Hints:
Shape: elongated
Structural class: alpha+beta
Number of strands: 4
Strand order of the largest sheet: 1-2
Oligomer: single chain
Number of helices: 4
Helix content: 40-55%
Number of domains: 2
Distance between the termini: 55 Å
Amino acid sequence: xxxxxxxxxxxxxxxxxxxxxxxxxxxxxxxxxxxxxxxxxxxxxxxxxxxxxxxxxxxxxxxxxxxxxxxxxxxxxxxxxxxxxxxxxxxxxxxxxxxxxxxxxxxxxxxxxxxxxxxxxxxx
Length: 124
């Protein structure tokens, strides 16, 4: 176990590696191989790994800042129909800002109604 006191952090305890540690390392290796095959530079991989594994918290864009999310919520309030939103992951903007990658889902007829709603309310 890594202990941290004041500004001192002890070495990793390699004698007590758990199954979860091994799974995390396998994931890091997979990510590194994938990034290498795509030519992603190391200075872009390191911040992504820090965020992905919770080593470093990076501020993220609030869903409340998004005009798309605002319109979807207004649509639901007005019509009672929902455009489902799910955070699929995050894109990093530089090394210090995460932007959610959102998936929207609904029946096609509801999406058609949403499109009409957006066109009618584009100047609001």
